Amino acid sequence: MSGGSYYVPATSRWPVLCSLALGVMMIGLGIKLVYDTGLHLAFIGVIGIVAVMWLWFRDVVIESQGGLYDAQMDRSFRWGMGWFVFSEVMFFAAFFGALFYVRMFAIPWLGGEGSKGVAALLWPDFVAHWPLINPPDSSISGPQQVFSPWQLPLVNTLILITSSITLTIAHEALKEGYRKACRNWLTGTVLLGVCFIIIQGVEYYEAYAHYGITLEAGIFGATFFILTGFHGVHVIVGTLILATILVRIQKGHFAHENHFGFEASCWYWHFVDVVWVGLFIFVYVL
Fold first, then answer.
1. Phi/psi of residue 258, each to 5°?
2. For residue 225, what are the domain limits?
3. 148: which of 58, 74, 137, 220 lies 20 to 30 Å off by Cα?
């Protein structure tokens, strides 16, 4: 574009449609949690989100390849992505905060510790311990046992750490102009993301079928699935984004000096990996 110009995108319907699809998904999940039905509605929402993502990405790619973006747009994209990642940090901080509050305050109080230890009068026989296998209320059944962190969780941790390494190598290869190497390392990253999703699915099956870890299994089951479930959704989204970037690489998109679409996907993926390290430490190990 000519100097001093600024591209203003046309009015887009995708943000509204994405919000509606997200709302349908969350309503379906809410109905599922409360009434044990409505899962089909959640799936419709998920399909809608994926469809909107695909069409939205298509429009952005067309604009980018058409030479409509300049340095000012690049700065706008960077600020936008930075604030988006920050919002994701706050999103997970809320759930980690809930986990820490339960472990460091609520459970000790119910066990008779601290200034609010009078809460122990509610369930005098309760023994404060984490993970909470035996909830204080006998009407709630806790999990039969918890996962060993040194099996599937460790494998998934190594997979995500490795994926960050392969993605960094792919990014450096692109900056140096080695497109074939970039494509190969990025392919490896996408495959590692798929492996993580599959292993997480196996873990969830084991949790429900053999460990008694469900959303109804007291505070441990609730925090486990909320934290790992939302992270799993982020891994799925990140894998789809990286797969889209891989297709663009194969089509010859991105220049070695100008490729923020690739860089933004790296920011997102590395953030997801850091969140998992926190999950591995505070949900599985400690």
1. -145, 100
2. 69-285
3. 137
Beta pairing partners, 255: 258
User: Same domain, yes or no, for 91 and 154?
Assistant: yes
- Domain annotation covers residue 232: yes
Radius of gyration of the chain (CA): 22
Cα 258 vs. chain centroid, distance in angstroms? 27
Q: How far is CA 109 from CA 56, 113, 123, 259, 275, in A?
A: 49, 5, 11, 52, 28
Neighbours of 26 (CB within 10 A): 13
| pLDDT tens string 132-158 | 888 887 777 778 888 889 999 999 999
Residue 226 carries which side chain, given as an amino acid letter? Answer: I
pLDDT for 2: 45
The pTM of this model reads: 0.86
Asked whether residue 84 falls in the same domain as residue 196, the answer is yes
Where the chain has pLDDT below 70, the residues are 1-7
Q: How many domains does the chain have?
A: 2
Give the CATH number of the domain where residue 34 resides. Answer: 1.10.287.70
